[in-house]
């Protein structure tokens, strides 16, 4: 049902899970643990799936929090269930027990954070736009405002599209290299003429290390290459499917 990080599991008072697509009630292209409220899956199935995830995290169903993800570098502080609409952001931080911070993904990088000594946790969704605009550094800064120290923070990258599956066009490469020529190292030639393979996990990791995180860990799990366990937007596109499920990655104090 979920993948655990040994680095986060070793921290006292921290619960976490990188949920897979297994162990839920959704059917068809969403089978089976689809946590995506924004998908076209049956609402009651997604609600049941999220209830199962919340139970695994040891929190009430309404305390598995998520945000309206917009590929930004925006971070919000969670103090309880949202009042009204979910905030538009791509990361959450908290010091409140009994809340699970959950981000959704289906190729982009889900990142879980913890400073066990300060009892500050965070969760972020990072595609290339989020990494490019600094979602990692922004999350660390938000955690520090709650009492964390970035050199004590462990950040773990869960299932993400890997470097052998993320083919991009020349305009994508040009955007990166124009911003900083050092970014050229995250690309290698693709078998298709004029295209390149992009190493998103390495790009995310480089930004975290530059931001001074205490420990950054990549679980090395490729969403595209393991369709039995993970949802993948790119796989859905290649298969011509009309929609896709979302993975949930969550962290809680307890």
Explain this structure to me?
The chain has about 250 residues and is an alpha+beta fold. The protein is built from seven helices and 14 strands. About 25% of the residues lie in helices and about 25% in strands. It has a six-stranded mixed sheet. Strands 1-2-14-6-3 form a five-stranded mixed sheet. It has a three-stranded antiparallel sheet with strand order 10-12-11. Strand 7 and strand 8 (about 120-125) form a beta hairpin. The two termini are about 20 Å apart. The mean pLDDT is about 100.
Write the layout of secondary structure elements.
Layout lengths: L1 E2 L2 H4 L4 E6 L23 H15 L6 E2 L9 E3 L13 E4 L5 E6 L3 E7 L4 E7 L1 H6 L1 H11 L8 E4 L9 E2 L1 H10 L7 E3 L6 E3 L1 H11 L4 E4 L14 H7 L7 E7 L1
Parallel strand pairs: 3-6, 4-5, 9-13
Antiparallel strand pairs: 1-2, 2-14, 5-8, 6-14, 7-8, 7-9, 10-12, 11-12
Strand content: 15-25%
User: What is the end-to-end distance?
Assistant: 20 Å
Low-confidence parts lasting 5 or more residues at pLDDT below 50?
none
Calculate Rg over CA atoms. Answer: 17 Å
Order of strands in the sheet with most strands: 4-5-8-7-9-13
Estimate nothing, just give the exact number of structural domains: 1
Give the tally of β-strands: 14
Going by CATH, what is the homologous superfamily? CNF1/YfiH-like putative cysteine hydrolases
What would the principal axes of the Cα set say about the shape? Answer: globular
Mean pLDDT comes to: 98
For the largest beta-sheet, the strand count, sense and barrel status come to: 6 strands, mixed
Instruction: Specify the number of helices.
Output: 7
CATH class: Alpha Beta
CATH topology (fold) name: CNF1/YfiH-like putative cysteine hydrolases
Helicity range of the residues? 25-40%
The SSE string, one letter per element, is EHEHEEEEEEHHEEHEEHEHE
Structural class: alpha+beta
CATH architecture descriptor name: 4-Layer Sandwich
């Amino acid at each position: 049902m979920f993948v655990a990080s040994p680095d986060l599991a070793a921290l006292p008072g921290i619960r976490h899970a990188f949920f897979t697509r297994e162990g839920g009630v959704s059917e068809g292209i969403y089978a089976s643990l689809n946590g995506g409220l924004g998908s076209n899956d049956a609402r009651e199935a997604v609600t049941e799936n999220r209830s199962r995830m919340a139970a695994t995290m040891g929190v009430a169903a309404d305390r598995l929090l998520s945000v309206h993800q917009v590929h930004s570098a925006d971070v919000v502080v969670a103090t309880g269930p949202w009042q009204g609409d979910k905030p538009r952001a791509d990361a959450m931080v908290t010091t409140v027990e009994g809340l699970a911070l959950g981000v959704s993904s289906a190729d982009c990088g889900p990142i879980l954070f913890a400073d066990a000594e300060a009892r500050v946790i965070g969760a972020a969704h990072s595609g290339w736009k989020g990494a490019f605009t600094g979602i990692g550094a922004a999350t660390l800064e938000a955690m520090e405002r709650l009492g964390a120290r970035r050199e004590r923070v462990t950040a773990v990258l869960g299932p993400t599209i890997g470097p052998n599956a993320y083919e991009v066009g020349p305009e994508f490469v040009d955007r990166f290299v124009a911003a900083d020529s050092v970014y050229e190292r995250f690309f290698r030639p693709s078998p298709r003429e004029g295209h390149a393979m992009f190493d998103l996990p390495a790009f995310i990791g480089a930004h975290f290390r530059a931001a001074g995180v205490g420990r950054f860990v990549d679980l090395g799990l490729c969403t595209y290459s393991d369709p039995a366990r993970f949802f993948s937007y790119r796989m859905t596109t290649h298969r011509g499917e009309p929609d896709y499920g979302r993975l949930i990655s969550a962290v809680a104090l307890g």
